[in-house]
Amino acid sequence: MSASRKDDCLLRVDEQTVVLAKVKGQNRPKAAPLRDFPLGKNPRHYYQNISGQICHMNKSITTFQAKCANCGQLFEHPSLGDQAYGEMILCSADGKHFAWISAFAELPQRVSALLPGASAMVFWNAIACLADPIASQQLTPRLHCSFCSSDNIEFWEGERIGVMNVPEALFCDVSELPTSELKLRVSESS
């Protein structure tokens, strides 16, 4: 049996009991009865918490201060820094949500094969366009002000502020697309 709704993203955790269902419009996955799952959902990206719930992986990432050139507000944002090879922080269009992704994950590798010789910005724009929205907000590889949503940033990676748990980007809507359809979606993103 497959997902009954197109916006469900399922993962079989074991042969007996639970899968994760990410329901469109909700930030957090929910436990659901065991069903078949689309290929490409990697169990390493999930863990079982102390109460037995299956949860999506978060990464603790250092946060820094940024300043919006549009409204002048200072705001906090996560940054992987210079030593993060092949990883990117995606930001929601409203600047209030973040997700991280590795270029070496399965879907980014498929996208990379469809964009031979493309620049890093073209690649990350395609990845952001294909990622599942967070809180109904499309993701982008550009940092946006969390006050006015502008991507006109005066400075970023200013003073270190703390640490933020950032979820890994999900690709439930596109992870099972055949190569021909994925190629079409990638071309629409550029």
Task: Describe, in short, the structure shown.
16% of the residues lie in helices and 30% in strands.
Describe the structure.
This protein is α+β, with helices and mostly antiparallel strands. The protein has two domains: 1-56, no CATH class; 58-167, no CATH class. Helix content is 16%, strand content 30%. It has three helices and twelve strands, in the order βββββββββααβββα. The protein has helices spanning 106-114, 120-130, 179-189; strands spanning 10-12, 18-21, 30-33, 46-48, 54-56, 58-68, 74-78, 87-92, 98-102, 139-140, 153-155, 160-167. Strands 6, 7, 11 and 12 form a four-stranded antiparallel β-sheet that branches. Strands 1-2-3 form a three-stranded antiparallel β-sheet, with no helix packed on it. A three-stranded antiparallel β-sheet has the order 9-8-10, with helices on one face. The protein is globular and about 45 Å long. Residues 1-44 and 47-54 have low confidence and may be disordered.
